[in-house]
Amino acid sequence: MSGDFEQVPGRLDARWCYCLPSDPERDLHLLHQLLVAPDTGWRVRYRGTPPTLDQVRRDLFTEDVVAQWTVFGIRNNEFRGWVHIGSANLVDGVAHLSLASTEESRGWGTFLEAAACCIDECFLGYPLRKLYGEVLSDNLSEFLAGGVGKYFTVEGVRRQCRYVRGGYRDVTLLAIDRLQWAEARTRRLQV
After folding, report:
1. At residue 97, what are phi and psi to the nearest 5 degrees?
2. Residue 73 and which of 15, 100, 110, 176 are 20 to 30 A apart at CA?
3. Which domains are assigned to the chain?
4. Would you say the pTM of this structure is higher than 0.85?
5. Residue 39 in 3-state DSSP?
């Protein structure tokens, strides 16, 4: 990735990465490649098949999006992932959070640091009290053990509702509560 992104409005900076508001001209192909990559693509399905470029354009750059950021590494501007907040219900104060990171970004904490910045920004900028997310129940303990996952609470399970790699899997519904998030982030910053 080349270019000077120092002055992009809405840029969020973390220690090891930065997040830019997603832009269809700049990011569409990166996001499509991420969503169809073998290590992440099996999680994203449109009627059983990976999404096409047109489907990604239609679904990721619509009015249903509250905010979304494309994440890059600070040292080399390398693409690290994507954070999406959409399907907001502002009457109830809830929205849906989606995270997808490149294989190279997993296990280092840089992507999760970026996700935390985006969650902070979302709670500061929008009248939301909860962000919901879903994770395959097979991955639940790994997800909850580290990074942003430890701030989620389990709110329910949908039994055998997602077809993945030859079988139906349970999906766990998770939530981040605004007040608990703010308290946890304040404690962490004071230590």
Report:
1. -105, 130
2. 176
3. 12-190 (3.40.630.30)
4. no
5. coil
